[in-house]
From TrEMBL:
It comes from the Bacteria. Residues 72-82 have a biased composition (Low complexity). Residues 72-129 are annotated as: Disordered. Residues 106-119 have a biased composition (Polar residues). This is Uncharacterized protein. It comes from Streptomyces lichenis.
Length: 129
């Protein structure tokens, strides 16, 4: 299976903690920038307002991450990466990457194509069971 062409400087657990801390910091800054809290009565109402604003921002960040992930997968494919590499970089199998981003790889490599017809695995008829 092709490699992912980078090495880890940290363990996966350390990377996850780094990402969580960075997102937490980002969310706090974006909440302050994007939302104006309404006047509230008491600490409980303020805590609720902050929690709901944070949740709303996380919802928007999740969508942004999905769009950026889609673009990064397309960029990797455009740069010549195949589903095995994209899957490994995304912590999934080749088939998982293919299911997540169908049609991402438009020109199969010689290893993926049928040398007699030029058809890829996806172009072959499937048997009905």
């Amino acid at each position: 299976m092709p490699g992912i062409h980078f090495s880890l400087r940290m363990s996966e657990e350390e990377i996850a903690a780094l990402a969580t801390g960075a997102v937490d910091d980002l969310v706090r800054r974006l909440v302050l920038r994007a939302f104006q809290p309404l006047p509230s009565n008491g600490e409980r109402a303020e805590a609720q307002t902050e929690a709901l604003a944070t949740l709303h921002m996380l919802f928007h960040l999740k969508g942004a991450i999905e769009r950026l992930e889609e673009q990064a997968a397309q960029d990797a494919a455009d740069a010549g990466a195949g589903y095995p590499q994209i899957g490994r970089a995304s912590s999934m199998t080749r088939q998982g990457a293919r299911n997540r981003w169908p049609g991402l790889i438009s020109n199969p490599s010689p290893n993926q194509a049928d040398h007699t017809t030029g058809a890829s695995d996806d172009d072959r008829p499937r048997s009905a069971l």
